[in-house]
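Justification of computing resources. Each target in the renewal requires a structure prediction run like the one illustrated here; the chain below, 82 residues long, is used simply to show the kind of job we budget for.
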Amino acid sequence: MPPRKLLNRITIDPKVCHGKACIRGTRIMVSVILDNLAEGRTPQQIVRDYPPLKIQDVEAAIAYAAELANEEELLPLRASGK
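Resulting structure tokens:
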């Protein structure tokens, strides 16, 4: 599925999860999916642990993160090793 189409799976509603990005129709935040991926879990493991999710939802979370990383205003990062 093209990244732009995947983004349709993401919703932001101020009345749900304090306005954090969630997978449409759930209260599963995109950040939860990304945290799981960062910990080394596979998309299949995430879908198994969060039954409402589909693989496309994990792909949508990645696409959403990629869009955020492309924003012009990025958070400053500290130099490593200092």
